[in-house]
Specification:
Structural class: mainly alpha
Keywords: Cell cycle, Cell division, Mitosis, Ubl conjugation pathway
Pfam families: ANAPC5
Distance between the termini: 26 Å
Family: Belongs to the APC5 family.
Number of domains: 2
GO cellular component, one term: anaphase-promoting complex
Order of helices and strands: HHHHHHHHH
Shape: globular
Protein name: Anaphase-promoting complex subunit 5
Radius of gyration: 17 Å
Number of strands: 0
Length: 156
């Protein structure tokens, strides 16, 4: 369903049907991180800011609690999840037009990424900072810097 939502939303289950299935899954396994993520995507689809925020936070909470993040990232444990949770929360707020909350979440993601020396996360933060600045101001300097750094790190 996540793949369908990403590639061809028309082939995915209807939002209400999908949420019903997800609620059944989560009733029996509330720590199923991927179900929370799919619930997040489904809530975004219907523009439900409360449910999408709730599901996104539960996704990252479960990811940290289950230790899935430390298995995939080896040496960092839950730090990677925390900075990407803040980054995704900033993106979510920006999508719904909550620019002040987006800026605060983005500042947190930047702070955590700087402490971890995570250049890839910082580049994503810079891209979102540019998007956020575009919503508030008109700035080309951030875009130029972002493109140069992306090229340096081999990011698209």
């Amino acid at each position: 369903q996540a793949s369908l939502l990403k590639n061809d939303e028309t082939k995915a289950l209807a939002p209400a049907s999908l949420q019903k299935e997800l609620n059944n899954l989560l009733k029996f396994n509330p720590d199923f991180a991927e179900a929370h993520y799919l619930s997040y995507l489904n809530s975004l689809r219907v523009q439900d800011v409360f449910s999408s925020t709730h599901s996104l936070l539960h996704y990252f909470d479960r990811l940290i609690l289950t230790g899935a993040e430390s298995k995939s990232n080896g040496d960092e444990g839950y730090g990677r999840s925390l900075r990407y949770a803040a980054l995704n929360l900033a993106a979510l707020h920006c999508r719904f037009g909550h620019y002040q909350q987006a800026e605060l979440a983005l500042q947190e993601a930047i702070r955590i990424a700087q402490e971890s020396n995570d250049h890839v996360c910082l580049q994503h933060c810079l891209s979102w900072l540019y998007i956020l600045e575009q919503k508030i101001f008109d700035s080309c300097v951030l875009l130029e810097h972002s493109v140069n750094k992306s090229l340096h790190f081999g990011l698209p």
